[in-house]
Design brief:
This protein is mainly β. The protein is 5% helix and 35% strand. The chain contains 1 helix and 11 strands. It is globular.
Length: 130
C-alpha cells in the first residue's frame, strides 16, 4: 500500500499499487501550482482514507483544460486527484511512501526557467511526450 497526504494531514489517500510512470512537467502552470513532479495513477488503485471533501479544485481558463486539486486547508498541490479518467497525474510530492521509480521524462522543457538545470538523463520534450 502506498500512502499519500497533504502537508497538514487533512487529506489522506492510499494507492493499492505503485504508479508505473513518473515525469516532470516544466510548464509555467505546473510550476506555479507546485506540481512539477508527477506520477500517473490508475483510478481503480486510489482509495480515500479521509478528507476528500477538503480537496479544492482550480478550473483553469482556456487554453488550459485540466483542473488542478489542492488541500483547502494547507494548499498542498495534489495534481488531478479528483479526475474521473482511468489514469491521471497526481503530485509526486503528495506521496508519503518511497517509490521504486525514477523520473522517466521531462515535458515542456521549452518553458523551463533558465536557472533550472535538468540533472538526469530522462527524455526531454518541448511539449507533451509523443
Amino acid at each position: 500500500m502506498i500512502a499519500g497526504s497533504c502537508c497538514c494531514g487533512a487529506v489522506k489517500f492510499e494507492l493499492s499499487e505503485a504508479p508505473k510512470m513518473m515525469g516532470t512537467c516544466h510548464c509555467t502552470r505546473c510550476r506555479k501550482l507546485g506540481a512539477s513532479a508527477i506520477v500517473f495513477v490508475q483510478k481503480e488503485h486510489l482509495s480515500w482514507v479521509q478528507g476528500k471533501e477538503n480537496v479544492g479544485l482550480y478550473q483553469p481558463e482556456a487554453p488550459y483544460k485540466y483542473p488542478r486539486c489542492f488541500c483547502k486547508t494547507c494548499g498542498s498541490s495534489l495534481g488531478e486527484i479528483l479526475s474521473e479518467e482511468e489514469s491521471f497525474p497526481i503530485a509526486a510530492n503528495a506521496l508519503d511512501t518511497d517509490l521504486p521509480l525514477s523520473n522517466q521524462f521531462h515535458e515542456f522543457v521549452s518553458e523551463k526557467p533558465s536557472w533550472l538545470i535538468i540533472g538526469d538523463a530522462a527524455k526531454q520534450y518541448d511539449g507533451h511526450p509523443g
